[in-house]
Amino acid sequence: MSVTPTAIDHPSAAADGTPAPHALQCMEIHGGNRRTDTALSLHGLDVWIVSRPHGDHPAGGDIHYVSVCGSGRIARFVVADVAGHGPAADRMAVQLRKLMRRYINFLNQSRFARALNREFATLSRDGTFATAVLATFFAPTDELVCVNAGHPPPLWYRADQGRWRLLEPEAQPDESGPADLPLGVDAPTQYRQFAVRLGVGDLVLIYTDSLIESRDDHGRDLGVEGLTEVVTAAGVDHLPRFCHRVLAGIARRSGSRPLEDDVTLLLIRHNGADPPWPSVGDVARVMGKMLGLIPV
């Protein structure tokens, strides 16, 4: 059964058709594997998500989640591209939400990545695997910590430089064993964390591979370089429409041919706001959620 969308999957729209942002509360998790056009507000971040399963299906193999920890200082993002659709993708959407809940207050996400890999390994008998990007934003230091499990590299817009670049580790992987493989391919795989410090106005775009696999009139894949050109041409004004402009730019390059797979874009902007100190009531609610006395 597909993950059921919550009310915030389709919030009321602004006059120009863009969704009104939903403010995530402490220990809240948002997402799933269903069609959505969503705006979220977190401490220090603005987020926009566009996810479209292939064809007319309400749910697909792309899974996305956003969570906020009990103090509001740790925000986590996951975009996963599951091989295949149907029940396997739906089961992974459910399992991924459970893991997000379990590790919601953990800053270090290596354990989360290993646990997620084990979950996929149990399904690998059915040929289920996935690429994924895990990203954790720690508001007090403005650091975004990333893990990439065989997924196309996100794009990072440096506001102070006015240009996009790939968001990927500078160091080479340790040759002593497999690293950063897709989830479910090899259970003992190690996942490297790397961190960047976001400046105010910086953007990070996480996407699934249907974008870079789209083809032009000559049958050539767009690729990461071509996607970077499309993203640059989309501009950074009026960000609530940014993901739609990117999709429109890809459609123009591909002669308006439909994409051949699910598509998901998750755009993050650092807005410079600092998380407030929690009140006594906030602390009590967090403890209640952590103890299971208050549903999450």
Oligomer: single chain
Helix content: 10-25%
Instruction: Report the count of strand segments.
Output: 13
Distance between the termini: 20 Å
Descriptive report:
The protein has 296 residues and is an alpha+beta fold. It has five helices and 13 strands. The strands form two sheets. Strands 1-3-4-13-12-9-10 form a seven-stranded mixed sheet, covered by helices on one side. Helix 1 runs antiparallel to helix 2. The two termini are 20 Å apart.
Notable characteristics:
296 residues; alpha+beta; seven-stranded mixed beta sheet; six-stranded antiparallel beta sheet; 13 strands; globular; disordered N terminus
Helix-strand blueprint:
Blueprint: E1 22-23, E2 29-34, E3 36-42, E4 45-52, E5 59-68, E6 74-82, H1 87-102, H2 110-123, E7 130-138, E8 143-149, E9 155-158, E10 163-166, E11 194-197, E12 203-207, H3 223-234, H4 242-253, E13 263-270, H5 280-290
Parallel strand pairs: 1-3
Antiparallel strand pairs: 2-5, 3-4, 4-13, 5-6, 6-7, 7-8, 8-11, 9-10, 9-12, 12-13
Helix pairs in contact: 1-2, 3-4
Provide a compact summary of the structure.
The protein is an alpha+beta fold. The chain is 22% helix and 28% strand.
